[in-house]
Amino acid sequence: MKKGFLLVTFLLFSTVFYAQHYTKEKIEIPFKLSPNGHIMIKASVNGVPGNFVFDTGAGMNLLTKDFADKIDSLEKTTHFYTGHRATGEAITSDLYQSEVLKIANFSIEDEQFAVYDIDFPLDGLISLTPLQHKAFTVNFEENKLVIESEESLRRRKENIKFEMPLEINNDRNVKVSVGTIVQLDSLELHVGLDSGAGFDVYRFNSRYMEALGIDSTQVESKYIPSSFKPEQGNQYYFAEVSRLSDLKVNAEQIGFRATFIDGLIYEGIMGINWIGEIITFDIPAKRILVN
């Protein structure tokens, strides 16, 4: 009797826990794709409209200094954050807090941003921090980002082609990123999923070249300075790889060009378009649903 009561209590708590993270109604946010596959959305910070890259690999929200200077009541906090680009450069930034971030009909208060004085074609990056408790879908067929309601997510689950595990990295709710596990030829790797990388981008730590039978002296390579810190840089190697897939081989790339980087802080990091055309990131349930 007691075990049955505990089971019912657990199931009830789980249902309430997950339901409270989904919006009452699904919210559709149109986006444009750059020629390289970057997702560009419109958003406003404290009522100031801007154009941003939606970047699942950014970790934290970023405003350019030029855009931040236009915003009233963007509060500089006492906090700072030191993050690292995928290629290893440490970047320290003060943290600023907005009154409200609005993306179409989705709004969130007290969102934190880094501000950086950088030459960037848009006004900044929107990371996963506003969506860290949500389920959202990137629909490349219709060019829209969908923040799912409980009902719309249920319908997606009824029509999925396959599911993949979703790994979540959350540091103080300031830096949030996601990843999954892939099979790269004979290697099983944990990789970051980075919509900000664009289409058909596959980057891996150069330590795996030998295991993949790639001779670093026999492939194209070059040294590339950091765009943030030109005094730093990394050696890049470019080689063909025979196969990449998720663990159950539902999504697969055959015979593609990959980049191997000295000093990459991840086992791998890549764009998301190889997974499918309609990809749902269900963060509360730690899963990827592909329609």
TrEMBL record:
Residues in the signal sequence: 1-19
Parts forming coiled coils: none
CDD domains membership: retropepsin_like_bacteria (cd05483)
Family annotation (Gene3D superfamilies): Acid Proteases
Keywords from the named record: Signal
This protein's name: Aspartyl protease
Organism: Zunongwangia profunda
Lineage of producing organism: Bacteria, Pseudomonadati, Bacteroidota, Flavobacteriia, Flavobacteriales
